[in-house]
């Protein structure tokens, strides 16, 4: 999971429930000060993640003149969703949620999805490309996740079937190397976030990650500006696989040195700079 440096958004950020035709979604919304925004950026988090995974990107994006809106998807952290019904978490339903969010914000928008969020973003664009100025796939590959990560997700799914969320968290922490475990620093932010996720959402989206088909050719046919960004190491989708996907999409390709599967939290400054350059080029 992504480990944001803080769960506190930068000054000026509005935290609220965005009302849409498909319900309310928790967002962090930061607009540039003193001028109309050059555009709006919508940021979708990955599996087990939340809008807080983009906290370190919000200020640089807003300073560059863009309105940045990070979203908790249905059943993620502070966005409500059923706890035991997987049907609202089918990928098509989550994609329609994104289209409703964009409609509520006012398009066109630059859409960014991290990991699972990238595959949901791709599904939304394939349903209706009209509201989107560009698509960024951050550490999000062409199809299912790597075999080793499939095994990890299957283990999580099996745990969710027999344990409550607190028990699953403790089991996960026991399997993490010491440097990856929740530091338990008094606020327990990672654990608190985990406990507010819907287990049905995790089970359903975990299965999507294990079985996602390759839809790269469909996306390429849209001729939408696409940016494929990743760290220089990734266990979820190997970097050469992301390189090949970018070629198939005729996409801009950025590798953030020193970052792993979450460039947004591993190297936020370099990540923000690459993103802003890409978005500025679309308006040139």
TrEMBL record:
Molecular-function GO terms, alphabetical: hydrolase activity
Keywords: Hydrolase
InterPro entries for the chain: AB_hydrolase_1 (IPR000073), AB_hydrolase_fold (IPR029058), AB_hydrolase_sf (IPR050266)
Source taxon at top rank: Bacteria
Pfam families, per the entry: Abhydrolase_6
Residues of the AB hydrolase-1 domain: 41-273
PANTHER family: HYDROLASE, PUTATIVE (AFU_ORTHOLOGUE AFUA_2G14860)-RELATED, MONOACYLGLYCEROL LIPASE
Protein name, per record: Alpha/beta hydrolase
Organism field: Streptomyces solicavernae
């Amino acid at each position: 999971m992504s480990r944001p440096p803080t769960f506190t958004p930068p000054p000026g950020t509005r935290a609220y429930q965005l009302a849409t035709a498909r319900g309310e979604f928790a967002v962090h919304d930061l607009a540039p000060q003193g001028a109309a925004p050059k555009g709006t950026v919508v940021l979708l988090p990955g599996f087990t993640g939340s809008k807080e995974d983009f906290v370190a990107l919000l200020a640089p994006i807003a300073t560059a003149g863009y309105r940045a809106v990070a979203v908790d998807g249905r059943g993620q952290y502070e966005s409500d969703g059923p706890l035991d019904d997987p049907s609202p978490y089918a990928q098509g339903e989550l994609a329609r949620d994104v289209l409703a969010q964009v409609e509520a914000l006012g398009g066109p928008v630059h859409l960014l999805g991290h990991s699972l969020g990238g595959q949901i973003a791709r599904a939304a664009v394939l349903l209706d490309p009209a509201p989107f100025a560009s698509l960024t796939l951050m550490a999000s590959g062409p199809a299912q996740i790597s075999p080793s990560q499939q095994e990890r997700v299957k283990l999580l799914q099996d745990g969710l079937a027999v344990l409550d969320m607190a028990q699953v968290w403790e089991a996960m922490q026991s399997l993490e190397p010491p440097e990856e475990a929740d530091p338990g620093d008094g606020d327990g932010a990672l654990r608190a976030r985990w406990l507010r996720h819907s287990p049905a959402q995790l089970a359903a989206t975990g299965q999507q990650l294990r079985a996602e088909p390759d839809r790269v050719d469909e996306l390429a046919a849209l001729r939408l500006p696409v940016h494929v960004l990743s760290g220089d190491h990734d266990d979820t989708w190997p970097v050469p696989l992301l390189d090949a996907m970018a070629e198939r999409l005729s996409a801009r390709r950025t590798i953030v040195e020193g970052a792993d599967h979450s460039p947004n939290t591993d190297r936020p400054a370099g990540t923000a700079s690459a993103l802003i350059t890409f978005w500025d080029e679309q308006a040139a």
